[in-house]
Amino acid sequence: MVSDDSPFEDVSADRDYLRVLLTAVCVVAVVLATAMLPVLSPGGTQSPMESLIPLPQENPFGEAGGTSTGGSGGQLGALNPGSQTSVGGSLDSGDSPYQSQNTEPHFTVTSSEPAYWRTGAYETYTGTGWDGRADPQAYEGAMAVDGMTDSTVDYEVRLAKSATSLPTVWRPKSVSRENVLVTEYGAVTSERPLPAGTTYSATSVTPPDDPEVLQTSGRDYPDEIESRYTGVPASTSAQVGPFTDRLTEDSDSPYETAVTIEQWLEANKNYSLNVSQPPEDDVATEFIFQMDEGYCEYFATSMAVMLRSQDIPARYVVGYSTGERTGQNEYTVRGMNAHAWVEVYFEGVGWVQFDPTPGRERLESEQQAMQNSSQEYSASESGSPGEEFAVGTPTDETPTDETTTGVDGQESQSEESTGTETSADETGDGDGASDSGEGQTVSESGEFVVELNRTATPGAAVAATVTRDGAPVEGADVSFNGEPVGTTGPDGTVSGTVPYDDELTITVDAPDDEASLAVPSVPRDSGRSFAVAGPQAQQSTNASYELNTTVSVSVTGEQVTGGEVTVTATVDGVPVRDGDVLLDGEQVATTDRQGRAAVTLPTEPGNVSIAVEREAVSGNTTVALERLSVATTPTLPLALPVSGQTVNATMGGEPVTNATVAVGGEPMTRTGATGRATVGLPLASSTTIAVSKYGQTATTTVGGLFVNAAAVAAALGALIAGTVVGARRRNVTAETLWEWLRSARELAVGALVGVAVVLDDLLGRFRTRLAFTLTALRDLLAGRRSPAALLDALRAWVDTRLSAAGDAASGAVTAVSATEPNGDDGTPAARVTIREAWTRFLTHVSLRRYWTRTPGEIATHAIERDGLPPAAVRTVRDAFRAVEYGQRDPQEHVAAVEDAIRTIEAAARQQSGATDDTDDPTEGRA
């Protein structure tokens, strides 16, 4: 109900005004809604209803072990992969986080090396997606690491979004969090979502990605690996298998097969986030044979399925690509970096990462998303073994151009590739003669022809086929360099191993007493398949050809003092078996059937030579064992006792992580992912800081601690002395400081009380006005008031407020005028007495510009220069300060001030009389 003093008066109802007002309100509402749509809809990709109200089918947290489709728009990205995942989707549906172009950070990483950040893996291809086993085990402090190792990566992660799966580098070895789970695929998960702001550190041991090492791996897989990771649906195998057979028929190893499949996908499929919805039966078949473009889910699924069709174990992996380097060893990983790739199992090595998605095109898409957000973006990544690609401004760690580097340093096939592209319908007839005609000699009647199935390389197993007039020759004895390798069978073929010599001579002894003839090999670079014409049957000749005898030596593992490394020796990709491994000229090991040997490096820094020899073939490489170094910087401008000191451990300019840091011989901490640690200095004049790792210890001395402390103390003493002198000059005492502090406290309390009173008053007025307004609106809607009456009432209310403000301003001016020091304005008499006493005191002080001095300086001058009574002067000074500056009650000082001012004036009169008596000694003389 409206009170009597309300400006709203009863008016007659006017329905026309009501309709006009309602129409205007609707128009305003539409305009406001249009303006607010971009604000309420995140990224412009959702409707306001979707952005404000979670839809029923969405699980904003995605409990671990549940089915995941990525979530709408990938709000959790790949931080919640779940135990099942679908593949594909259109950009409009927003179902896949791997289509997201969201530039919002999901987490940041400080890492000793850049890497892909893995969150999940899957083993079973269903045709429309992937399934994994949802039986993680509790993490108990360490994870087993199987297979060969290359380097150790230490990293620290800070989540910017909630997550149920912790990003790690493959293969994780340890993680700093408790109450987490580990899947059998090596993913670290949590039963409950970890909130944004969660931090953890982890250590991973990466597998080797050197093509020379992977090339030597065979197909002797563990039974469990082969049975679990080579299966595909029968319908998929029936279509994908024959095509992949033709595509990879010239591949001699699982590694070559993987590279061939990856390069075919990169060359024949375009990268695009805007693809149509895939069919419901088989995503891989659709992408390989029907689709022209796709994104990471399609590429990774297709490569995994194609590898499995060749009985090569492969699995589907999700997580995040490297992200953007935003600081020293720091990477910002965003929603748009959510990614899918493949892990391929290699015998004796383990699971190795392959990324068939065109890297440069993907980075360009991310760069465009950042530019749309008005942000610059540069990134570099290593997706597959031997592959690097970059976009944006290169860093000192990346290539200087924006090309995609393929295996063995060659540029991968892409849209700019000049080679012939092979599509699913252009793979040839599969007759195995892809290199035929290259460097071959056509045989004539009566001649023997020997054809090898591959290039002759020392240690390579080759099949030699002997024909005459196009027909296979059975029963012929074949020798390599005089050593019999066997007798040809019904198909004219015999198998043997190329000797470790610098030349090869193939000798064929004809059956049925035919003449023996020697056949020279053709140049090894003339083609994978070749034929050589022999002499006439009645002739005999010996011809030879020089073989490649240069061994390529690769070293896998941490190349540090005392490190355990694996040496791999190959010639044109063929393992050097039973080769002698020499360390600085001394034999230390022998290579196995894969051309590998374990070697322990020396414990002293320096260059070490590793060589591999067998008969005529040999090769070597040099490994630099860097020296550990340490540098320290104080956390304060100077190193002081019990202060902090930052320790930086490096080897060859690279940070050394997890190194032990000791101060004064006592271990204190370990270096982090950046090779740094902070330690406290002891209370001593000097101390030593030592860093130890890899059997090395680097030491530095931090001295002059007491000298620095003395210098700081002297500086502080000088500052304090200067402050004291300045305070004395201005007559600032401890009592004065206490008065200032007490006054400040009282002012603060008064201010808080005043603010509370004002807010309470405003709240009361708001409630009253709100009641008036609601009543007026109800009357308007009920027709009891017209819009014109409301406007009149509003105008009257504004006039009332303006009038009140004017009255308040006039009152303030009057109050200010009344505070002039005339003593007649109602100011308390006691305060006037104090001011008058101070004014009377100033008439006896000889300062010309006293208004530029503080009360303390004026009092000091009056005592020391004018000779006024010190006690009386101090009484007046203190009273004036207390009343004018300290807001103290003036009444308690009045009596003392009146006595003091009388004393001062009496002393001044005495001084004046004495001066008059002695001022002019000649006064009164004639």
Give an account of the 3D structure.
- By secondary structure, the chain is an alpha+beta fold.
- It folds into five domains: 67-409, C8orf32 fold (Roll); 448-546, Immunoglobulin-like (Sandwich), CATH 2.60.40; 552-625, Sandwich (Immunoglobulin-like); 628-685 and 702-707, no CATH class; 829-918, no CATH class.
- A six-stranded antiparallel beta sheet has the order 10-13-8-3-18-17, with no helix packed on it. Strands 23, 24, 25, 28 and 31 form a five-stranded antiparallel beta sheet that branches. Strands 26, 27, 29, 30 and 32 form a five-stranded antiparallel beta sheet that branches.
Q: How would you sum up this structure in a few lines?
A:
The chain is of the alpha+beta class.
Search tags:
30% helix, 926 residues, 26% strand, 5-stranded antiparallel beta sheet, disordered C terminus, Immunoglobulin-like, 6-stranded antiparallel beta sheet
Mean pLDDT rating = 80
Corresponding CATH architecture of the largest domain: Roll
Level of helix content? Answer: 25-40%
| Rg computed from alpha carbons, rounded to a whole number of angstroms | 45 Å
Number of helices: 16
Which term fits the overall shape? elongated
CATH topology of the largest domain, by name, is C8orf32 fold
Spans of at least 5 consecutive residues whose pLDDT stays below 50 are 1-17, 34-75, 393-446, 515-543, 811-826, 921-926
Widest sheet: strand ordering: 10-13-8-3-18-17
Write the layout of secondary structure elements.
Layout: H1 15-40, H2 48-52, E1 67-68, E2 84-86, E3 105-111, E4 117-122, E5 124-125, E6 129-131, E7 137-138, E8 151-159, E9 163-166, E10 172-175, E11 181-182, E12 188-194, E13 199-206, H3 211-215, H4 223-229, H5 234-247, H6 254-268, E14 270-271, H7 283-289, E15 293-294, H8 296-309, E16 314-320, E17 324-327, E18 330-334, E19 338-346, E20 350-354, H9 359-372, E21 379-381, E22 389-391, E23 448-452, E24 461-468, E25 471-472, E26 477-480, E27 483-487, E28 493-497, E29 503-509, E30 516-520, E31 530-533, E32 545-546, E33 552-556, E34 564-571, E35 574-575, E36 580-583, E37 586-590, E38 596-600, E39 606-614, E40 617-625, E41 628-634, E42 644-651, E43 654-655, E44 660-663, E45 666-670, E46 676-680, E47 687-693, E48 696-702, H10 705-729, H11 734-782, H12 787-818, H13 829-842, H14 855-864, H15 870-884, H16 894-918
Parallel strand pairs: 1-2, 14-15
Antiparallel strand pairs: 2-6, 3-8, 3-18, 4-16, 5-6, 7-11, 8-13, 9-12, 10-13, 11-12, 16-19, 17-18, 19-20, 21-22, 23-24, 23-31, 24-25, 24-28, 26-27, 26-29, 29-30, 29-32, 33-34, 34-35, 34-38, 36-37, 36-39, 39-40, 41-42, 42-43, 42-46, 44-45, 44-47, 47-48
Helix pairs in contact: 5-8, 6-8, 7-8, 13-15, 13-16, 14-15, 15-16
